[in-house]
Amino acid sequence: MAKSLNRVTLLGNLGADPEFRTTPNGTPVASFRMATTETFKDKNGEWQDLTEWHNVSLWNRLAEIARDYLRKGSKVYIEGRLRTRSYEDKDKTTKYFTEVVANNLILLTPKDGHSETDSDKSYIDENVVASVNEPMEDDVPF
């Protein structure tokens, strides 16, 4: 039995085109912000939307798929794990940054970028459904 689990599942839309870069050793990396929206009725019976924004990073082949297929507004399904990093800003204050490191990506927006109907029919192409179980270059093996 697992003693702990770090798993994230998101279904939402990109807030901007993915940013693509490579590490100094040539590893592809893509990152983007993704919105998920929860709809609920408030105490007055009015429907309200609550949107959360998530930072997502993809590595290796997933990064290349994001670069080639994802655009602002694309609907995607992401599975991955949470990772929090820290850094010091120019004032020497420690800042924290939490992101989802994706290891599974399914594109849900049709190739032409337009939904066929309001029923959110999914577009899934075997060439753009990817899962990566390779260790990241900064993973600690324990």
Question: What key phrases describe this protein's structure?
Answer:
7% helix; globular; OB fold (Dihydrolipoamide Acetyltransferase, E2P); 142 residues; mainly beta
Structure report:
It contains one helix and seven strands; from the N terminus they run ββββαβββ. The protein has 142 residues and is mainly β. The chain has a single domain, classed as Nucleic acid-binding proteins (OB fold (Dihydrolipoamide Acetyltransferase, E2P)). A five-stranded mixed β-barrel has the order 1-3-4-6-5. A hairpin with a 5-residue loop joins strand 2 (19-22) and strand 3 (28-41). It is globular. It starts with 7 loop residues before the first strand and ends in an 11-residue tail after the last strand. The model is unreliable at 115-128 (pLDDT under 50).
